[in-house]
Each structure stands twice: as C-alpha cells, then as structure tokens.
Amino acid sequence: MKLQIFLLVSTAALIFSSCGGGTTTQPSTSEPTDGVLRVVADDTQDFDKDRYTAAAGVIEIEYILDGFQLHNLLVEGYEDEMVLEVENGETSTGSISLEPGRYILYCDIAGHRESGMEAQLLVE
User: Fold this and answer.
1) Which of these, 24, 42, 77, 92, has the minimum number of CB atoms within 10 Å of its CB?
2) Stated pTM of the model
C-alpha cells in the first residue's frame, strides 16, 4: 500500500511539474518567410531576434522600425554592399549576396552597436 501511495504521489508531482504555469524559453531566432528576411528594430536600440538564418545566395531583407529613432542595418564586412536605414516607423528593403557562413548584423548609429544592437546571421 505504501508503494502504491508513493507511486501515485510521484506521478502526480511529475505531471504537475511538467504542466506548471511557468514560461518556456524559446531560442530567439528567425528564419525568412516567403523568401524575405525580416529584421525589426525598436527604440530600445535592439533587434527583435538575437539570431537570424537565411539561405545562401541573394538574401532579400526587410528592415522594419517599430518606433521613431533613426537606425540602420549593415552586415559586418559588407558595409559597402548594403545599408538599410529607417526612421519614424519606416520600412526599408534591400538585398545582399552572401556565401554560407556566419555574419554579424548591426546598427552603426553612434552608441547603438555598443549598447547591444547587433545580431548573428547564419547563412546556410
């Protein structure tokens, strides 16, 4: 009888702990939908994701501002190939051709990158 009570209590504890009201942490990554990589910036000097992925080749990027502060978007090492700029809730689009590898997206407005406005881009 004690074993049955122990198993019943243990099972109930396992069920309640796995269903509990806590939150789960999902990786902060984004993959392109409909062939377009969407990157959202906001006035807290941050992007909506920490990591993005895209297929190698020409990558179409839509840079969306959820706010009003001026931001731009560059790919480290490819600054001469694409610069997207947004302000006052605008959206800017562009494209860049990248080989498979790891890249850094960032905003080069004074102080923005230093405050954390950068993200990884994995091109597969």
Assistant:
1) 24
2) 0.74
